[in-house]
Amino acid sequence: NAQGHRYTPALITAEQEEEEANSTTPSYVFGDAALRVLQKRKKDKKLHQYTIQHLVNLLADANDDDDDEKKTVAESSKVAASAFFAQLCTMASDSSAVAPENLRIVLSVPTVIHHDDDQNELDAAHVDAWVDTVQKGWKS
After folding, report:
1. Are 76 and 54 contacting, i.e. CB atoms less than 8 angstroms apart?
2. Confidence check: pLDDT of 135 > 60
3. What average pLDDT does this structure show over 79-99?
4. CB of 79 within 8 A of CB of 59?
């Protein structure tokens, strides 16, 4: 949520940097914890690059491209964004005392996307990226 220039609820980053991580599946931190990690790494100048919206936009943009580097970034973005939605489902399940499969997921996507200082209308690829990412996080 970028309301009032506050990105922290939707921030996500790996707990350890790639070169520090020993395992193949990174663990992620969210919100204020992610902000603290980014500040420690001195990467807090461009917080929008660590928001869920930016990660899902990268995923949607890579579907139309043949560039292997973009596809690698998109795959790691998908894992990170899915981890965010899995965390949301876990928190909602814990607070409401229901199983995750009993949650009703409602996804509201904007009609205009803000990506790299551009404004474009939302297309089917972006909607599909949002739905796929939420579903993957919900089912994990």
Report:
1. no
2. yes
3. 86
4. no
